[in-house]
Design a protein that fits this description.
Elements (H helix, E strand, L loop, with lengths): L2 H16 L3 H5 L6 E2 L5 E5 L5 E5 L2 H14 L17 E4 L2 E4 L2 H18 L9 H14 L4 H8 L4 H21 L21 H7 L4
Antiparallel strand pairs: 1-2, 2-3, 4-5
Helix pairs in contact: 1-3, 1-5, 5-6, 5-7, 6-7, 7-8
Length: about 210
Amino acid sequence: MTEKGLRDQFFLLFMYDTGARLQEIRTLTLRDITWGKEVSVTLHGKGSKVRVVPLMKPTAEHLENYLKVFHPEYNRKENSYVDLPLFYVVQHGRRQPISDSAARKLVRSYGDKAKLICPELPDIVHPHLIRHSRAMHLYQRGMDLTLVQQWLGHAQIETTQIYAYADTEHKRKAIEKSTAVNNPLRSKRSASRFTVTDEQTLKQLYGLA
């Protein structure tokens, strides 16, 4: 694997594992990594709010491999080079945080490649879709909504609740597809009760507010 491939792979894996907003990832520095029995990162969210998110063991291993290539001078046992951005580009000989446009282009390019294998993917894969997917997977695996809220850094539980609505609607559609047309249960279904009408909540979920 090339160095670029290593970086891109870790970037996507890190984005999914943490469920972080793109801005939170762009502003991460080596100082925000906490080493121990379990590795975690400190994310700086909206409104100067800070939260700590643990990394899965495979992600932590990828992190170490990434650091060896892109931050070879970094020594986690010493307080050195900790202000460098975790993900960066080199401009005029200095490391600068990866730009918003470059990060979005990275995600979209791999989304386009993935769509060739999985046509069900949206036409445009953007960073917030990865965050959305992580949240849905956490909820579907039994994580309480309040914990999902803390994981994502949502200020209001109402924003997080949309994942419960979305999951319920997904299950409703799956049941509908598996129910015969002449089954009397089909007449009992009601899509309206699964519909989220709070426009502000939808905007917040997709990063528009």
